[in-house]
Amino acid sequence: MTTKVSVGLVAAICLLALAVPLLHLQDPTVGSLGQRLLPPGTPGHPLGTDGQGRDLLSRLLWGLRPSLLSGLLPVGVAALAGGTLGLVAGLTTHWLHDVVMRTLDVFYAFPAVLLAIAIAAALGSGLSNAVIALSIILVPPVARIAETEAARLRGADFMLAARASGAGWPAIVVRQVLPNVAPGIVVYCSSLIGLSIIYAAGLSFLGLGIAPPSAELGLMVNDLRQFIFNDPVLLLEPAALILVVAVVFNVAGDSLRGLLDHRMEVS
Amino acid sequence: MIRFLVRRVTLTVLILLGVSLVVFLTTKLIPGDPVATLLGPYSTAEDRARLVAALGLNRPLPVQYVSYLWTLLHGDLGRSIARQQPAAGVVLPAFANTLLLSGFAGVVAVAGGVALGAVAALRRNSVAARLVTAVSLVSVSAPQYVVAVALIVLFAVQTRLLPPGGISSTIGGGGLGDVAQHILLPGVTAALVPMGIIARMFRSSLLDVLSQDFVVALRGHGLPPRTVLLHVFHNSLPSLLTISGLQVGYLLGGVVFVETVFTWPGLGLLIFTSISERDLPVIEAGVLISAFAFVLINLAVDTAHAAIDPRVRA
């Protein structure tokens, strides 16, 4: 029940973000200074306007796109890179395993948010740099999960059988290992999406994401923060949207994870 | 126990070396020429060559790393570009403020998390338990910058009960009560996520212990429920300790947003302002300090865990 509803909501949010160009909203980057800080409910501006007179409804919806993109993309990159690293480490027993795992330990020594901020700051602000920074901090946890999953298979009978029947490593990895480890990795990664979205919006909140005047939810929170004393409602709009998106993705990820754990207990 | 400590401390030293290497390498991998940036657009090739030699940037990377380590060991964290003074003098006082904030948030998180988790585990099907699950879910999903602005709107703008930011009042401030008033909102904001996680973990660990045979045996013996509960709590202590330690460690790195919104003069706010000033040495020094603190906290947690639970010493 929770799973269906939350996954449905995730799909709805993604569809909405995809459909934004079709909605013919006002230009999110052009405002008029005569219409600054209009309250929600103003005719023509249902959610009000920001400090430069730009329509907030349009900015929220357009801002959802980079927020989702910079949250989803790092998880995808981390799934591929971390998954590969973890599989390599999990399937080998020699020095390669130790090199990979000890290197990951070093990355675990950094508070993740701070490492992302440091990398993004070093690379310079911009959407792609934020994605790179987030991808780097998400790789170690994914690799660790993949390593555990792959290590479970190391001594399995069907692996021995595959090798005895003369299958080479590429065939074994594709036919035997991937089908066994992929569900666990994919589900774990889906539970990281909510976090990744929060971090991504956080980076642009700090000025390390997409550059103004483009709309992005974290950037909007930081931008509207200066009006907190006189127009708090305007600030709460992007803040609430980030919260809703994060909760939806987290609930969906958690319930998917719960389903898989349950399946594992049964089998 | 001594063997455990020796092994764990050796590992910690190795990890600290790795941390310093990562920070060193980020400074080397940044796009752009730092020397050209320092000298400006009108510098000659001669000027640049002289500065490269003076900064030792023409030496091989491993040599540079060793000399970087050497200066680190002497307490030299580099030089702030924006402030033109040693980075240590800027970073360390800020770190003290961050420690104060995350220490307070840690206490709130552990106390709140234990209470919520216990209610959720012991009154499993009650309304309270459902409420706790919902609260801990939302608190985990709520970005700190969102909670922060919401709390400021509620308590500082609408009702004016608490100050919206800073560490003390500008006029007649600085006393214990004054700082306590200022720490309340940022502290609660920072505590929310770890509190939710601790509550969830403590709940599942309590349920886990409750389902073990010895609890049935104790009840069968006719022990009063309160005494049984004491044994259950005692058995879930190690996992509580581990998760709490980890979360308090995360707080050190995670308070960047809280400090930024509440203008709390800690490491996070310093890093935020240094980002807009492009003051990379300060950012690196800040990241290095919090990573070191994080590693040391983990060492302390593991040691305490080993002291309580002999099974992990092996």
Task: Please outline the helices and strands.
The complex is a heterodimer of chains A (267) and B (314).
Chain A lengths: L1 H18 L36 H36 L3 H14 L3 H12 L3 H27 L3 H8 L4 H22 L2 H13 L11 H8 L7 H35 L1
Helix pairs in contact in A: 1-2, 1-10, 2-3, 2-5, 2-7, 2-8, 3-5, 4-5, 5-7, 5-8, 6-7, 7-10, 8-9, 8-10, 9-10
Chain B lengths: L1 H28 L4 H6 L5 H11 L5 H13 L5 E2 L4 E2 H36 L4 H15 L2 H15 L17 H35 L2 H8 L4 H30 L1 H7 L4 H10 L3 H29 L6
Antiparallel strand pairs in B: 1-2
Proportion of helical residues of chain A: over 70%
CATH architecture of the largest domain in chain B: Orthogonal Bundle
The first-level CATH class of the largest domain in chain B is given as Mainly Alpha
Number of separate strands of chain A: 0
Largest sheet of chain A: none
N/C terminus separation of chain A: 22 Å
